[in-house]
Design goal:
Length: about 150
């Protein structure tokens, strides 16, 4: 499972011109589910995302987590995070998990974040979405559950 985290002041996602999910200060998360991912990947990634200290404290040091600042989260599924660009000029997406399994793990990730106390909204799985966000920093972090799983998350 791969995630792109962007620290935001606000973010929203629309489908057919209607806002379906939004957040205030917190994280905008693009989540890609990769073939072979399991519930363990969702658990590892959810814990890391919620506890990662990328928000500033009173001394302007990145020392606080999403949980500590009471931040919100907007999570949008993104199969293109599984792109393989090693051959030719057109990406291959064969490593992205099939939609039914990917949606289940996407929903599990969101549920795990909510269970930790994070207010989390979502886009619409598989829909053509439009995203609007106001970045904070900018701070952008890439996470891969397989890399995190090799270490203590």
């Amino acid at each position: 499972m791969k995630a792109v985290l962007q620290r935001v002041l606000s973010a929203s996602v629309s489908v057919d011109g209607e806002i379906v999910g939004k957040c205030g200060q917190g994280l905008f998360v693009l989540l890609g589910v990769i073939e072979g991912d399991t519930s363990l990947d969702a658990q590892i990634l959810a814990k890391k995302v919620c506890e990662l200290r990328i928000f500033c404290d009173e001394n302007d040091k990145m020392n606080l987590s999403l949980l500590q600042v009471g931040g919100q989260m907007l999570v949008v599924s993104n199969f293109t995070l599984g792109a393989d660009c090693t051959h030719g000029r057109r990406p291959s997406f064969t490593s992205a998990m099939e939609p039914e399994g990917a949606n289940a793990l996407y929903e599990e990730f969101v549920s795990l974040c909510r269970a930790q106390g994070v207010s989390a909204e979502t886009g619409v799985f598989g829909a053509d979405m439009r995203i609007t966000q106001t970045d904070d920093g900018p701070v952008t972090i890439l996470l891969d559950s397989k890399e995190l799983g090799r270490k203590k998350a």
